[in-house]
Fold these 4 entries.
Entry 1:
Amino acid sequence: METASPYFIGIDSSTTATKAILIDREGKIIAIASSEYSFETPFPLWSEQDPQLWWNATVESIRQAVKAGGIAPQDVKGIGLTGQMHGLVILDQDGQVLRPAILWNDQRTQRQCDFIREVIGKKEFIQLTGNDALTGFTAPKILWVRDEEPEIYRKIAHVLLPKDYVRLKLTGEYAIDRADGSGTVLFDLARRDWSSELIQKLGMQREWFPPTFEGTAATGRLTQAAAAATGLSEGIPVFAGGGDQSAAAVGTGAVEEGIVSISLGTSGVVFATADHPFIEPEGRLHAFCHAVPGKWHLMGVMLSAAGSLRWFRDTFFKEKISYDEIVSAAAQSPAGSQGLLFMPYLTGERTPYPDPLARGGFVGITVRNTFGDFTRAVLEGVAFGLRDSFELMKGAGLSGIDHVRITGGGARNPTWLQIIADVLNTQIYTVDSEEGAAFGAALLAATGAGVFSTVEEACRNTIHRMEGVKPGENASLYEELYGEYRSLYPALKDGFHRLPKILD
């Protein structure tokens, strides 16, 4: 009797939806399902979400994916998890959620970040965790609850990240992977585990934080209740997985030193795998553990990449037009946009300027500038912002970059791809995998279940590099323009910081 192929599910609990992707043992995508939800902004700078939304969406997406795939539920042999990083989920001793989760894009914790730098020391904190204390991270969120909601703080018994709340609902186990864990900035980065000393100095309790696991490790099995809810079989192993950026790197094959990936979505992420921890001394890059066992990564994040193009379209066109129409106008504009430069700091910035008050702008406008110039300037400004991360990585000592892979919605446009190749002055490649983090989580599960011996083998067998785009004749011009672009933020920073005070 022929045995059915094993199938694996990757679950991605993002900010706006939970996606479930079903793959077979060859890495072929059998089905994809997604369930959407919203988040709340009850006050300026706040961003919160009810964790129950993730669980409801997980149940719905799993059921839809299995039904669409036409497979028997008992043939699912593993589940991998990923999701939005840095979100704070706090529970009491009975595992009940104490307050809505505070999300990665919440900006309320500047005072707590200053406290961390004062108590630990900025340089010492960066050397230990690989990161500066920034408002998006988890540690300052815990301190905010301590300062602003002391009655809730006193009830904390467990601290989880978003996808690990889903894990708790699936398995009844408290656990976290080391990639996502390092994004709390409560990790000793080199040791790949919680820093008990740091946790103690910040006045937190070590017992709040769950055991940590490499991305391919099993962290529990599907409970009877979770099996009934999802329609799957009781006892299916649930694997550690990783935060969305490290899982997305697995999903695009960026798992070996020398491969750098660019994710050109709403935000822009430059991701480089390393065999040992690299730390940028000023904390302008993020250094985290990778979801690949025993590896680390450097990551630069610009907050408004393709989001800049979306803002440009939605703000200046009452009648919505397609991105293809907009970018076709940019293709008619000369390189350099007739002297027009764009700063893509529309929602503040993370890399290279960790400044929530950084602002965007067009500089160099003349009466000669056309619609195409403005559009091309946006594309070029985002490309310059991506290059900032590459320059910081080189400065941190990362070398031997063999090739660059690019994914995300913006990567589908040949004009933008060519601009990025020219600005970076390097060949860039697309890949045949477009499902990112959820696909990466499924590959981590398949590896943990023994289908592949290593994550690297899983990626080599399932993800293939497509034809590259080489830098062209505009590369030398962009080299000069990049220098001018780099001069803009330092010149305008003081004004950016004064404007909110004037308006207040």
Note: The chain is about 40% helix and 20% strand.
Entry 2:
Amino acid sequence: MFPIFDYRGNVIGFGGRVLDNSLPKYVNSPENALYHKGSNLYGLNVAKKEKLNEIIIVEGYMDTVALHKSGITNAVASLGTALTEKQAKLLKKYAPTVVIAYDQDGAGQAATLRAIDILAKEELKVKVLKLDHDDVKDPDEYINKYGKEHFTECVKNSMSAVEYKISRLEGLLDKDDFHQKVEFLTKVAGILAGLKNDIEQEMCVDLVAKKYNVSRDAIK
């Protein structure tokens, strides 16, 4: 059983997790006048005790507990629900940068893409964690197998939100196929068009043009 605290440290609900393979895997307190999943972040009451340059957001209780246990106390979780605008506003109060460290599976990657856009609306700097081993799927497993130092290095090497979005497109399209490369670069241009910072946009245009051997004017 996991007591769920609000950011002030008050217990507002509970979450239960099975220790075997039975279903459902998680059972949470029902939402009520005090407990709203989309308005709170698990672990924020602890994380906010220190001045934070960045907050790591993970998917669940176990990831948060594993990171805090290893001494990484700037980790919070979105209470098993998709990140909400209210949670993004809450994050903005405590740190200028958010590192998304969701599971590396398909569902986690889809949730990461949604979270990037929600956090970007709050003008937060967004980075995405890329674990350097494929045999683990989440921070909990990674910490237990490879330890704090390796995980901290992964956090330092986190990708920018733009890099992550482009890497996801790379995995879906065959860039050696002419028509698919045109489609790929058109979608990349769409990602760059959404950047609000002109300097960041110019730098990304240069990087994309150089990496994919296309003129920067074409990307512009």
Note: The chain has a mean pLDDT of 92.
Entry 3:
Amino acid sequence: IDGSGIVVTNNPVIVDADAIKVRLQDDTEFEAKLLGRDPKTDLAVLKIEPGETKLTAVSFGDSDKLRVGDWVVAIGNPFGLGGTVTAGIVSARGRDINQGPYDDFIQTDASINPGNSGGPLLNAEGTLIGINTAIYKGAQGIGLAIPIDAAKRVIAELLKHGEIPPPWIG
């Protein structure tokens, strides 16, 4: 998400890992350090040291402005086929699939298959509007992504604290 080497993915992609590697489209690999993760929102933040490699950060879009019917593309590594891009439309917003306390997913018919988790969901302008996270169990053609406007708040907390601090009043 920035040129210094901050990478966002899903929590299950890295949970219980002994070592984490990030592979770029050109097959360049980097060792990654876990900066923080939050199982409830299904997000994890990593850091790589790019050295001389120039990283291009994705531009953040505004997921709150998404409309049902807007075109989107999902990028991922389904079944080990890296750099796969699929296109579709936003089928629903604010989808609750009873996965956790913060369900507010973007539903799309862009194919999100095993291996797409943690990859970007981009709008027609090429800006990041979601993070691919799940497939609706038992259904084909129903993919879900975490809206970037919700993820930005979580990412900021993970960068600052390494976890989501519990709320406190008093």
Note: The first strand starts at residue 6 and ends at 10.
Entry 4:
Amino acid sequence: GLARDEEKITCDKLDLEPPAPGEGLQLTMGAYYPPYSETEVCKFIQVGPEGMNISSQNVRYSDGSHHMLIFSTSYTELPTVNKHGQIVDTADGKVFACPEGPAPDWNLTGVIGGSQNPEWDPKPFPEGVAIVVPPNAWIVMNLHMLNPTPEGVNTCVKNNFTTIPTEEVEHEAGFLFWYNPFISVPAQGTSRSTLRCPIIEDITVLNGQSHMHSRGSNYVAKLYNGEGEYVEDIYQSSDWETPVPIDYEPALQIPAGHSIEYTCEYTNNEERTVNQGLKTTDEMC
């Protein structure tokens, strides 16, 4: 179960004012975290009858967090039974435990926002570009939290979505969210994991960011052309905890048939093999 101390959870100390009326939406979520604990929590939120065309995002979260993600779903009504037939109390915007994240339990259709950085203010999309969320859609907010201290922690996250009217949307944006499940780092050893993903239609890439856990020592993403020839490095970071996103100026034009290969390098100082997984005791790429 998920320990809670709802009365003590407050987002007041997070300095992020909501968008002006009619110009966007602020999402918040908080949970109490016992000493020496780690898990993920989720919360369902319904978009209004006008839908949502997201043109920019701003994020603030407090102590205890590891990452925050917001997913679109296929639900037209608030789901109360997960994919395993289990009843979950999702009513009234309740925060509920989702230890493996929302993907194994709920029908997700994509990522519409998120951050690994406690303060993140990415560049807005270009004029006429937005992530489109249909009217009355249900989205799910996900917070992966870690409290390595002997004291309980009240954690909170604020997320602002700034929006534009539907008639101004000329191009639809989205996330390429790639996950490498083939990771194994031997005890007191090093390893490297690489995955190459094809680009199946012409795309314009505005920004990018890596994600690793504490054994991650280096990350690099490379672009290859349709003949499999190396073109250029498009991202590099050795910071696993707060990797800096890159904004491409000018935007990166990638034709169909090209591919992106991303590699994570690891150094494991523990006396056990570390494999891929969702916890900070596991690794990611």
Note: The CA atoms of residues 107 and 228 lie 34 Å apart.
